Amino acid sequence: MTAPQPGRRARAVLLVANTAAPYSRGLRVARSLAAAGYAVEIAAVADGREPGTEMDGQVLIRRYAPSGRWAGWATERRRAPGSGVRGRLRIVTTAVKVAAWPVHVRGWWHALRAELAPADLYHAFGILAIPAALDLARDARTRGRAGVVVYDVIDVILESNNVDRVPAPVLAWYRVREHRWVATSDAVVTVNDAIADHLQAAWRLATRPTVLMNCQPRWRLPDPRPDLIREAGGLPAGRRVVLFLGRLGRERGLEEAAAAVLDLGNAALAMLGFGPWADRLRERDADPRYAGHHVTLPAVHPDLVPLWTASADVSIIAVPANSLNQRLSTPNKFWESLTAGTPVVVGRDLDVMRSIVESERLGAVADPEDPVDIARALASVVDLPEAERQEMRDRCSAITRARYNWETAVVPYLELVATLVPSSAAADETEAAR
Q: Which domains does the chain have, with CATH numbers?
């Protein structure tokens, strides 16, 4: 590997296969690399709605519009033929999708090759970004850059419900391709120990993936405690708030949570996020049965999430664990809730989160498919005497300040990067973070 040239800052490019508007894990990694002395760019996807370029402190965020012969596959509308197309054309289209998988991001890859300046470090967030990172790194090495690739396994995507309809032979082919990408990468990182152990065994890795948890920066609750959700949702002061954070869509337990909250009585389910179900959920807000007990609010910037999360009485992550990826997941919303001092109700089969919640007494566990049991778990938190509820909140805050915080979590990653891409600034930052 080639070290950055003397007198030139090491350049890091973070590849995000969405609009990064914003992408919280990407922002945390980018800010930490910038603080360590790297020139940092987040290279995301342009959709015509977000700015082409913007700055987050020292971090450049640039969005690249899909180009080249694959650009037309970049959206669902263009990706498939019209409903009237039959026979051979449909077969050919399906064959192209399989052979060129993941076809819908290839136009973005083309734009990156044509427009993105070479870098010393490529951090690829997820399976949609790693092939482009490897391609760009090969070119960067011919142009005097280090061209190091870190594959960030943010999800075990080929063991998730995203591929539950993919035929087994096709899925096996996808897994072979990912394994090849892993073998060509310089390092692998992932979001928790359970997934790191799984990946090491599944891919027979000599070196265990570096764990970079999705923890949030240390945060202290302002006094008085914020009440943003009740204010934005028009809820009365005494109504207890059950918060769902994140993507609004299928298999998130939203139907069951809504029914459970009605059983709680003086409570409301607040959804703070975005996704394909957003309009449908806003319609439910006005349904007489749910009015005042169901509010759908737009997503907020990651920097503001703690204030909103602290406005809730309890968070809910009661999704059905119908894949390995879900069972082992520890999403942003989990750490965001604990950082804000908000207890969490988690699904009983979400193994990693359940272990933390039960061992540290940070909330409750429920059957995600049973609204009655979800209501029981929620009540076990919100109906506690005030002193006991405060003790639970304090435990949530204390454990994130002491153990589960970004300042602690990022240290192994910065040490890894400083080894792969030598930089005096990076080394100094790593030492300071210890």
A: 11-215+406-433 (3.40.50.2000), 228-402 (3.40.50.2000)
